[in-house]
Amino acid sequence: MSGLEIKWNVEVNWEGKLLREYLKEEKKLSKRALADIKFAGGSIFVNGEFVTVRKILQANDEVKIIFPPETRSDSILSEKMNLNILFEDNHFLVINKPAGMPTIPSRDHFSGTLANGVIHYYDQCGITSTFHAVNRLDKDTSGIVVIAKHRFAHDLMAKEQQSGGIHREYIAIIHGLLSSTEGTINAPIGRKCDSIIEREVREDGQLAITHYSVLSQTDEETVVRVKLETGRTHQIRVHFAHLGHPLIGDDLYGGERIKIKRQALHSFYCSFLHPFTQEHIIVEAPVPPDMQDWIN
Question: Are strands 221-228 and 167-175 parallel, antiparallel or unpaired?
């Protein structure tokens, strides 16, 4: 079974130049991607003719890339489940992940993960890719997960994420009242010395910046809208715990599991520039029922 197929028409400014440079500089194919095409069963055509990357291009040439089928990890089993798909095209799948579902398998969660469900969905649709999560959510965080349907799309989105081109926003419910209605938490985050799971604010940690604004509050809790400038593990949870306002239900970082049985955190908004169509994609996921009462 062949892999993904992508076509482009060569622009005038690339006339007389090598196909290799066009693919690397204009279309952002990595050295690894080109090596996979050459050695792992892919192919390149110009105007229907099989060529190598040494081909000299002419304006309006049609370049077609056929990527080799991807090899899947044996650790990701195919598992049927109902996926709440918010957006889909040939390159991306955006899913509203429920709380309680890990994004990828681990030693403690070999099945029942989002990856298991996506692989089954791919099998049903005849998609030869493996699972490429552009972003991940903690098991008990609900909301938007962007998945690339092939390695090339994942590479391009990784670059967009590094440059700040992917915008993600969350709703969080925290203990107590904040001293200001909006603000920025700029505090580096690193792994806690005596834990393989927990993170903490520490001087030698990685840069971590979180912006927030208050949506509503009571005497005991505050609902905040959160925008990430960086994407560190447990960033929102660690930052608000650092302020003395851990998330409701987040017992790992000091929250109480009385009114909700998981950290009250939901990824509700994501936007990005589609690297293939150049469209501005906006996706939203409604706040789930266990957090909705606070929002109302």
Answer: antiparallel
pLDDT of 1 higher than 70: no
- Residue 248 DSSP label: T
Distance between CA 221 and CA 214 in Å, rounded?
Answer: 11
- Confidence (pTM): 0.89
Q: Which one from 36, 138, 140, 250 is the annotated catalytic residue? A: 138
Residue 85 belongs to what H/E stretch? strand 85-88
Query: Distance between CA atoms of 148 and 161, rounded to whole angstroms?
Result: 13
- Half-sphere exposure in the Cβ direction for 162 (13 Å, CA): 6
- List beta partners, residue 143: 97, 267
Strand ranges inside 135-293, DSSP E: 142-148, 167-175, 182-186, 189-191, 199-201, 209-217, 221-228, 265-273, 280-284
Secondary structure of residue 76 in the 3-state scheme: coil
% of the chain with per-residue pLDDT over 90: 72
Question: Is the model's pLDDT at 237 over the cut of 50?
Answer: yes
As a whole number of angstroms, the longest Cα–Cα distance in the chain is 70
Q: In the CATH hierarchy, which top-level class contains the domain 5-66? A: alpha beta
More confident residue, 165 or 39: 165
- Let me know if 61 is a catalytic residue: no
> Residue holding tokens 């905040």?
224
9 pLDDT exceeds 60? yes
- Sketch the domain layout of the chain as residue ranges: 5-66, 168-267
- The domain defined by 168-267 carries CATH number 3.30.2350.10: yes
Tallying the residues shown for the chain, one arrives at: 296
